[in-house]
Amino acid sequence: MKQSSNTTPQAQKILKKHGLKEINNAVFLRSDPETLKDLILIQDYITYGYPTKAIVNELIRKRGFLNKDNQRMPLMNNALIEELLGAANIICVEDIVASLWKCSEPEMNFEAVKKVLWPI
């Protein structure tokens, strides 16, 4: 997200809806018609595109934290990852990266990972 001091109320609402609350936040979104429509409306305030696997890996490893009981936990412990995401067969950081990068296979993994990740 770029500087947003002069945003319209509609743009502010869309930014908050997608979890972009401050400058330098990043969020992973599924590419569907509704999301693309929102991105076009706020394109002056954001940078968006399709990330490479290397970018997803770097973002997760450098800025990724888990949300456990509303506490920010570092993404270092595979046991914690397995505890939170084991039901979705995600047991390590590499599985988190793969779930975000290939968000369509299987669809439930992408949503499960998004729920336990602290906002980036």
Written account of the structure:
- The longest helix is centred in the middle third of the chain and has 11 residues, at 53-63.
- 47% of the residues lie in helices and 7% in strands.
- With 120 residues, the chain is mainly alpha-helical.
- Strands 1-2 form a two-stranded antiparallel ribbon.
- The chain is globular, with a radius of gyration of 15 Å.
- It folds into 2 domains: 1-50, no CATH class; 53-116.
Quick structural overview:
The protein has 120 residues and is mainly alpha-helical. It has helices spanning 9-17, 33-41, 53-63, 78-85, 93-101, 107-116, and strands at residues 65-68, 71-74.
Any key phrases for this structure?
120 residues; mainly alpha; 2 domains; two-stranded antiparallel ribbon; 6 helices
Shape: globular
What is the oligomeric state here? single chain
Strand order of the largest sheet: 1-2
How many DSSP helices? 6
Order of helices and strands: HHHEEHHH
Cα separation of the termini: 11 Å
Major sheet summary line: 2 strands, antiparallel
% residues in beta strands? 5-15%
Mean pLDDT: 86
* Number of beta-strand segments: 2
**Pairing-aware structural class of the strands and helices?**
mainly alpha
Q: Any low-confidence stretches, pLDDT <50, length ≥5?
A: none
Q: What is the share of helical residues?
A: 40-55%
